[in-house]
Amino acid sequence: MEEDKSLESKYIQQHLANERTYLAWVRTSIAIIGIGFLASTLHFNSIREVSQFADTIAVFISIFSLLIGLIIIFFATFQYFAVRKNINRQTFASANHLIKISTAIILSIFLLLGFYLISILF
Questions:
Q1: Domain around 97
Q2: Residue 5 lies in a domain
Q3: What keywords tag this UniProt record (predicted)?
Q4: What is the mean pLDDT of residues 91-114?
Q5: Is residue 4 in some structural domain?
Q6: b/e for 68-91, b at 16 or more Cβ within 10 A?
Q7: Is residue 1 in a domain?
């Protein structure tokens, strides 16, 4: 146990950077969840009525954003502990899978928002 503490204190800068990265992923997931709630709130609080298809898309965006936000928090936590272990072992592996998956998810949310906007305009 004492050896673990000495390893962590030896790499303080790296551990602090790892924590900042984790908190950035948490902020990203909160923003994604917020986009979903914003889309559904704006939709259902609008004055004019729109199609059932637009209602379905708004609800789907909200639920999808919530689930994706929670999944990102889960994977960010997993990544945080994996990087922490790698820092202490003096090895490095980049987080390219998490970044690729998050980019694809964010693009899909924007596509859903685009479909939603098209459905309420026409």
A1: 12-121
A2: no
A3: Cell membrane, Membrane, Transmembrane, Transmembrane helix
A4: 81
A5: no
A6: bbeebbebbeebbeebbeebbeee
A7: no
67 phi/psi in degrees, rounded to 5: -65, -45
Residue pLDDT, tens place only, 15-32: 899 999 999 999 999 998
Confidence (pLDDT) at 47? 55
Alpha-carbon distance of 31 to 102, in angstroms, equals: 13
Q: Are 95 and 75 in contact (CB under 8 A)?
A: no
User: What separation, in Å, do the N-terminal and C-terminal C-alpha atoms of the chain show?
Assistant: 64
Mean pLDDT of the chain: 83
* Greater model confidence, 22 or 61: 22
Contacts by residues 51-54 (CB-CB < 8 Å, ≥ 24 positions apart): 51/119, 51/120, 53/119, 54/116, 54/119, 54/120
